[in-house]
Records
---
Amino acid sequence: MAILALALGSALRGDDGVGSAIARGLEPLLPGLEVVEALELLPEHAEAVALSDGVLFLDASVTGAPGEVRAERIAPRAARAAFLHALLPEEILGLARALHGRAPPASLVTIAGRDFSFGEGLSAEVEAALPEARRAALEAAQSFAAVGFEDP
């Protein structure tokens, strides 16, 4: 099963770089995991999403208590009419379905950050939440086989 992890955010903005940190710990747990690091989601990501069997969107969140882990299944939706520079994970799934005829099962796993200022390194709360976020991502990836693809 080909799982794509889209690790979002900037490592130069403190806790915003947590997507890549989650992904680094997942690679040994999910053989064949393809990790793509990106500052933001772009329409060009839709093809890689459509070619995968499941997608993990890994990102920081500005809502919730610092270190709070959230994992949720997400579904495709149409992109907003006025394209912004970045798209939402649901919109990338919608583009994958519209442009490439398939939208794999997907989950969004986030850790609420404390510090998004310029600088490298994660806050203590976010660093401590990494194992829980990796467990949530692993559980989501393992469930993809049972879910299947969204019909166009």
---
Amino acid sequence: MCARAASQVPGNPEKRAGNGGSGNGPPSPERRRLATALLGTGLISTIVSFLYPVARYLLPVMQEESMTAVTAAKVSELKLNSGRIFKFGSRPGLLVRTSGGTWKAFLAVCPHLNCTVQYRSETQQIWCACHNGTFDLNGQVISGPPPKPLEEFEVNVRGDEVIVSRSRRA
């Protein structure tokens, strides 16, 4: 059987493959456009997935500077020698009521690796679980790798509300 006669046989796989298959002709324009679109979309997605983290690192999100004060808790919610995490804008804050009854508030973000710190009533210290860093109740580093103290907030009690403000104590 000659090659021409074989291509005219109804069950011949070469004939069913059409222009884009294993036949002798070039791929059809529709298949070429589809392949180009899929490869282009994959390439663009890959580039974006690499550039997005770089852009987030180089252009950090602006913090909410308009947030100057927040009601962190009610006086009745915190017992003596206890602490509580509260939301100060988009970041966590730590409100501490000492065993002497004074109020302290800090940005609850460790300056070492930005982990959230917590109050430990048994030691009366602020503790970072990431690398076991500890701070005293003035926010100063006692031990561990934190390079600087915690940012301290001002605390005012108005009625039954504990108001924490961004302005630092002098």
